[in-house]
Every structure is written in structure tokens, then in C-alpha cells.
Design goal:
two-stranded antiparallel sheet, mainly alpha
């Protein structure tokens, strides 16, 4: 229940941000640059457009920064904004299905960010020695096609990956051991 309250508070903050973002007063105060696209009360400055377009080109390698693609991107932004405005007018952001989707996205993103952070932290501490590489090679020699020298980096990555997986399992188990967890198996099996 507490987690649901936190999620709902974060979702409310997200909705508030969206409302502020799409109101003309907040946009005018936030950006002093000239507005290049306006859809009803929503405004996009040249700086915002360039950031969005650059991000679009980065995320889609087939999208080259040409004038034609900039024009297409303008049309895309207009269409997207019209759709968002219509969805907001219909109050779809308040529907349970939308809220559940946001909750799931929020949870998945938070877990991904946690694991990336922890993985980077753990990776700094993981050391793979030459002795470990030799031992792994000798134990798996019959399955190896390469010499030890040729397979060294691949073996290092395998050992490092195994160590990181073990660290993650141990970390998770330690959290689980510290947590107070109750499960009503009777109600679950009904």
C-alpha cells in the first residue's frame, strides 16, 4: 500500500509537470528563445526543437539530419502534440489503465537504473586474474577452438560476467534476508 502511495505521488508529480510544461505561461517563463512551433497553448522553441531532433537522429540511425527530415519531424511533433492535447482533454491520464502503465514503466525504469548503478559499482571491484583465466582455459580446453592467448579476452569477459552475476545474486539474497516478507499462501491459491 505504501509503495502504491509513493507511485501515485510520483505519478501526480509527473502529471503536474506535464500540465505546467504544456501551459503557455510556464513555457514563456522557462524559455526566452523565439517560439518556432505552437500548437494551441503548447510552444516549442528552436533550442527545444534542436534537442528533440538531435535525440531523434541519435535514437534512429536511419534518420539523417536533413532539411526534409527536419520538416517531417516538425509534422511528427505537431501530430504528437495534438494527440497529447486530445488525450488530456478526454482525461485519459486519469484512467486506471494509463496509471497502471505509468506505474509499470516507472518501476521497470527504476529497477533498470538501480541495476545499472550497482553493476557499474560492482564492475569496479571485480578483478579477473591471469591464473583464473588459465584455470578456466584448462578446465574447458576440450571445448576451446582457440589458443589460450587468442581466447584470453573472451575468457576474461566470461569470468567477469560470472562474478558479476554471483555478486548480484548475493546482493539480492542479502536484501531479501534483511526484509520482512509475508505471503498469505491460502489466499494466493484461491
Amino acid at each position: 500500500m505504501r509503495n502504491l502511495l509513493i507511485i501515485l505521488l510520483l505519478f501526480s508529480a509527473l502529471l503536474l509537470f506535464l500540465c505546467v510544461h504544456y501551459s503557455s505561461n510556464a513555457t514563456e517563463n522557462q524559455y526566452s528563445e523565439e517560439v518556432i512551433i505552437q500548437v494551441n497553448n503548447s510552444k516549442i522553441t528552436l533550442e527545444e526543437f534542436n534537442e528533440l531532433f538531435k535525440s531523434g537522429c541519435t535514437n534512429d540511425p536511419e534518420m539523417e539530419p536533413t532539411l526534409e527530415n527536419r520538416d517531417k519531424f516538425v509534422q511528427y511533433l505537431i501530430e504528437k502534440e495534438l494527440m497529447i492535447q486530445e488525450a488530456m482533454r478526454l482525461e485519459l491520464a486519469r484512467k486506471k489503465n494509463f496509471i497502471r502503465t505509468i506505474e509499470k514503466f516507472w518501476e521497470q525504469t527504476l529497477i533498470q537504473d538501480l541495476l545499472k548503478t550497482k553493476h557499474a559499482e560492482w564492475k569496479k571491484k571485480v578483478l579477473v586474474t591471469n591464473d583464473e583465466i588459465k584455470q578456466y582455459y584448462n578446465e574447458n580446453k576440450e571445448n576451446m577452438e582457440d589458443t589460450l592467448e587468442d581466447a584470453k579476452e573472451d575468457i576474461r569477459r566470461v569470468i567477469e560476467s560470472d562474478k558479476l552475476e554471483k555478486i548480484q545474486r548475493d546482493w539480492y539474497q542479502a536484501m531479501k534476508d534483511k526484509a520482512v516478507i509475508t505471503v498469505d499462501k491460502k489466499k494466493i491459491s484461491q
